[in-house]
Amino acid sequence: MNRSSHGTVALVDRGGRQTGVVTSPGLSSVFAGFRFPREVISVAVGWYLRYGLSYRDVEELLAGRGFTVDHVTIYRWAQRFTPEFIEAARPCRHALGNRWFVDETYLKIAGRWAYLYRAVDQHGQVIDVLLSVRRDLAAARPFFTRAGAWARSRPRSKPTARPSTRGSSTSCPSALHTVEQYANNPIEADHGRLKARLRPMRGLKRHRSARTLAAGHAFVQNLRRGHYDIATDVPDHYRLGKAFDDRAITI
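Now predict its structure.
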């Protein structure tokens, strides 16, 4: 397996259509050719990203609603359509805050440790995620470059906790870089939400799956926290389902 140091699923625009073309209603949908309708696919992908479910759990839930879908098919849906939902929602995303909390956390993939770089702003919006097999300045720099390119304004403050993330000073030298103890508590707490999502799983086997799940989890988290102008006219507990239904129509 080619283990690239950079993730292939991003929450931010990287200057090209690397997560799939967003089609207009008059063109062929990305769901064309699939056996099940887009409503079933969007529900399955949304459940998997939102809740601590395995693919077999989602298979069982769909069976209870009259849809017989193999768990391998659900895996393929998650890998195929998570980037599409993220890209379709990107134009509706709120501007980033000017205070970023940056850190990396550890994931075990196929028995080996990998490093997931994550950043949130002062409003709790996950800025971006990037999976790397290395933990050094060379691995961290593309993360900050990618996130900074999407931001409408440069951050004024970047609390960082570890030496590898302190390389952010080279990507945004004008920002105030804070490394005091406890300064990075918001991102540390946010890591816990991702770890809680991963806990019911038997382990990650592929880097591609880990990248997709990390980005998809961050996307769902941002949706639930109201960081997208999507489904703002419905109560909070209906927002996620409405958002996935709306985006499924546009892709």
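The mean pLDDT is 81.
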